[in-house]
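ok, trying the design again with the full structure, not the truncated one.
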């Protein structure tokens, strides 16, 4: 049975507020654009800290750009309370060691699951080390990501560190659309691939395929006009 992760999230918020609690939450952020709506939504209910840990971004220049945009966004957004920022260690070799043997997997396959587990494992460890009540991830806002799978991974690694994973599907309630609007409002850099060189390669291939289809359509149109 498919889980209603948005309702689960709302129920937890209601329960904590009924008890008069404002829990500490560590939000794993994959990038500024994806974390934008997540922060806007969560900071009203939690003492929020953003955790940027993404060794899958194996281009150093790209990594620096994304982490700086994530920090800039926190400084610019109008929050009701302070949102803190923690940058995790950056070592792409950890990612490449973890996905060894799965380099040729299609995006969305086993390689991605390993990557999610690697990042959420580190988020769970950080949540435990810093004494957070919950942790979660902005990854669920992406229409390309399976929120239920991410939740399954998050809940599994949470057991290892005795912390709670906050279930989420941030794309719900127009969350993804709101993240796009906030990105435009703050003129954020919006990348067109997840982060690793493999996803970048697939993104380039998809763009070429779209361009070929577009060019073919124009060619067929010109041929039709010529016949007429």
């Amino acid at each position: 049975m498919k889980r209603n992760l948005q309702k689960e999230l709302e129920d937890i918020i209601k329960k904590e507020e009924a008890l008069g609690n404002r829990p500490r939450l560590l939000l794993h952020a994959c990038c500024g654009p994806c974390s934008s709506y997540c922060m806007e939504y969560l900071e009203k209910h939690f003492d929020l800290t953003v955790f940027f840990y993404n060794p899958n971004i194996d281009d150093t220049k790209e990594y620096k750009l994304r982490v700086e945009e994530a920090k800039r966004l926190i400084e610019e957004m109008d929050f009701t309370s302070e949102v803190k920022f923690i940058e995790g260690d950056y070592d792409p070799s950890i990612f490449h060691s973890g996905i060894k043997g799965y380099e040729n997997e299609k995006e969305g396959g086993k390689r991605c699951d390993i990557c999610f587990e690697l990042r959420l494992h580190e988020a769970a460890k950080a949540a435990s080390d810093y004494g957070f009540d919950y942790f979660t991830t902005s990854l669920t806002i992406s229409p390309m990501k399976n929120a239920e799978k991410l939740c399954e991974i998050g809940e599994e690694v949470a057991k290892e560190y005795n912390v709670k994973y906050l279930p989420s599907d941030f794309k719900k309630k127009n969350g993804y659309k709101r993240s796009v609007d906030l990105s435009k409002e703050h003129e954020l850099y919006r990348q067109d691939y997840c982060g690793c060189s493999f996803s970048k390669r697939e993104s380039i291939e998809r763009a070429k395929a779209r361009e070929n289809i577009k060019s073919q359509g124009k060619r067929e149109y010109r041929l039709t006009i010529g016949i007429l």
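Keeping the full-length input from now on. The mean pLDDT is 94.
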